[in-house]
Amino acid sequence: MFNSLDKFSSSVAFEDEDNNRLRYSDLISFSDIFKEIIPARSLVFSLCSNNKESMIGYISFIRNKAVPLLIDSSINTKSLSDLCDKYLPDYIWMPSSRREIYRNYEVVYSYENYKLVAFNNSCMAKLNPNLAMLLMTSGSTGSPKLVRLSYKNIKSNAESISNYLSLDNLQRPITSLPMSYSFGLSIINSHIIKGATILLTSRSLMEKSFWSMLKDKKATSLSGVPYTFEMLKKLRFFNMDLPNLKSLTQAGGKLNKETVKEFALYCKTNKKDFYVMYGQTEATARMSYVPAGTIMDKPGSIGIAIPNGEFSIDTSDNESSLDSNVDGELIYSGPNVSLGYASCVADLEKGDENNGTLYTGDIARKDKDGFFYITGRKRRFIKIFGNRINLDEAEQIIKEIYQSVACAGSDDNMSIYIVNENMVDKVKKHVSNRMGIHFSAFKIYVIDEIPKNVSGKILYTELTEE
């Protein structure tokens, strides 16, 4: 992966809002520098933002067979410390602003606003030879459960995406999603292998400077999660003059049918492409897409499997089905299915536990044309602003400060139930700080007691918002 960048050497790989540019030849040069510093098969924690330092680190680690865990640079100190204790990284690539936390550790390399700290390089973890990188399963909660991705996973998914989106070196996507998030990273991977120019910004859609950059630097594509598209409507996106923007891509959760229709109609009228997609970190991001020409006829669908992938439905009788209108757990098979999970450093030596097949945990059905629709969830996960949140893990995080709690909800709307009104503000702040989610994404309800059955298990169906 990334071993053929020399054929794009004179092209610009990354350009930021301050007009700093990195050519593909620069990425190769930095990779050579890191090769002299970090031994192959080192475990590196990379605290990422959408900046050139993070991109240099990521490309260099992958090219040199070091194994990075990509972590949002805003992760709180306790969560980061817990991950370090659990996995014992050899190095940490971090913003200089976080250097104080690890002031007793040696800085072995510095570039611009980043430093490489030797954290534990005297005791390298045993890593499976196929392990390429690690991503978190639950957004920014700092969960110790990680997804193990291979070089084959990353390469095959990038190639499939660039294939069905017809990407080439003329593309100029803008980073509207964090690179530590699997969807955001897949955008980077699928464009890098084509020699495209990626526009780097950590600005949000709500900032004027984001739109100035998008227009001035002639971004050709914009990607987002459902929340992104709701914000675009509020920003009167349909009235903007964006002649260089050629495509919109959406994943990270289900977009409601009416919004799908609105954006599909806008794109059809303005000669742009609109792609609705479905994926999970466990499949290196994307597993399906709705072809742009069929989006108006299939609102609400996750589409068809990506090239080299295949869907089936696991019915109630535990048999795989390809029949239409049969509900069951959605199964995906393909070369992008991850090796499995890791919950501690010893798991990083494990081989392929999935064998190319992923049970997604989503309930789905297929229509007569072969398009798939998600109809429910098998497990207790929701998505908040595109990040998958495990509701059971959320409860455990809250229990760090308060025990009587239950979490439920739907995408972009987590409901937290407690029995002490005096704890509302503390719980609110704790959830926001520890899980990295905005106050608007959850609501706290004070109830008389948490409903439980005789064995002490919470009865989530009895929780109400009144």
Written account of the structure:
This protein has helices at residues 24-37, 52-63, 77-87, 151-164, 182-192, 208-216, 226-234, 257-269, 391-398, 424-435, and strands at 12-16, 21-23, 43-48, 67-72, 91-95, 106-111, 114-118, 131-136, 146-150, 198-200, 221-224, 247-250, 273-280, 285-290, 304-305, 310-314, 320-321, 328-333, 340-342, 357-366, 372-377, 381-384, 387-390, 405-410, 413-418, 442-446. It is α+β, with helices and mostly antiparallel strands and 466 residues long. The protein has a 5-stranded mixed sheet with strand order 4-3-5-7-6, covered by helices on one side. A 5-stranded mixed sheet has the order 11-12-13-14-15. Strands 17-16-18-20-21 form a 5-stranded antiparallel sheet, with no helix packed on it. α1 packs across α2 (52-63). The longest helix is centred in the first third of the chain and has 14 residues, at 24-37. It starts with 11 loop residues before the first strand and ends in a 20-residue tail after the last strand.
Keywords:
single chain; 466 residues; alpha+beta; five-stranded mixed sheet; 10 helices
Summary, kept brief:
The protein is α+β, with helices and mostly antiparallel strands.
The helical percent reads 10-25%
Number of helices: 10
List low-confidence stretches: none
What structural category arises from helix and sheet content? alpha+beta
SSE blueprint and pairings:
Blueprint: E1 12-16, E2 21-23, H1 24-37, E3 43-48, H2 52-63, E4 67-72, H3 77-87, E5 91-95, E6 106-111, E7 114-118, E8 131-136, E9 146-150, H4 151-164, H5 182-192, E10 198-200, H6 208-216, E11 221-224, H7 226-234, E12 247-250, H8 257-269, E13 273-280, E14 285-290, E15 304-305, E16 310-314, E17 320-321, E18 328-333, E19 340-342, E20 357-366, E21 372-377, E22 381-384, E23 387-390, H9 391-398, E24 405-410, E25 413-418, H10 424-435, E26 442-446
Helix pairs in contact: 1-2, 4-5
